[in-house]
Amino acid sequence: MKLGLLQCDHVVTELQSAHGDYPEQFKAVFERAGVSVDWQCFDATQKILPDDIDCCDAYITTGSRFGAYESLPWLTALQGFLRQLYQVDKPFVGICFGHQLMAQVLGGKVEKSAKGWGIGVSFNQVKQPKSWMRPFKPEVDLWVSHQDQVVELPAEIEVLGGSQFCPNYIIQRGKWLGIQGHPEFTKAYSRDLIKLRSEKYSPERVREAEYSMAASVDSERIIQWIAAFIQESLQNP
């Protein structure tokens, strides 16, 4: 499977030496999950996007510090590319920011949530099981780092999983899949990121996040789900 990684940000310089940039994080979790991928990376923040949509079988986005609703030249270009993907029915998976961008491109609404920041581990329930969710598990627990949420859903979209804090956590429309959590994060990276950004959060939220870190996460399982989702999408023209 040839997968195009649309990079929408970079890991901050202070953390790159210990944790790598986003392409390294994605490659590492796919390897841990036993999913073989031929990667092609595109730095969308520099307006570097595929000249040929068919150069990859499917595309996946990284997270980002930016908001899907911001007016940025590179983001406008990326949204245009995603619309082209949708028009030709190309499989796409949006992670965190990409999940939000997917919803916005399809006609939904994203904004900063009144519930505040989600950090640490998020605990979610699968509401609509799918055939590609294998091996199946009714809970989806992943690292998160987000303040924005999808607050209005596009038409004809399915909500596959969520929680009280983030109801629209996993969404699907045809060959497009959005996941609010970060399967590519590790515990060490999440902890260092929270420490670096601690001034953004309330002490109570930091304490909750620290306690959540004792939980097991489903990172590798979610990568297996993503791979199966893409494979099924490619087999169903």
Automatic annotation (TrEMBL):
Domain Glutamine amidotransferase: 81-187
InterPro entries hit by this protein: ChyE-like (IPR044992), Class_I_gatase-like (IPR029062), GATASE (IPR017926)
Name of the protein described by the UniProt record: GMP synthase
Pfam families referenced in this protein's UniProt entry, alphabetically: GATase
Top-level lineage group: Bacteria
GO cellular component, one term: cytosol
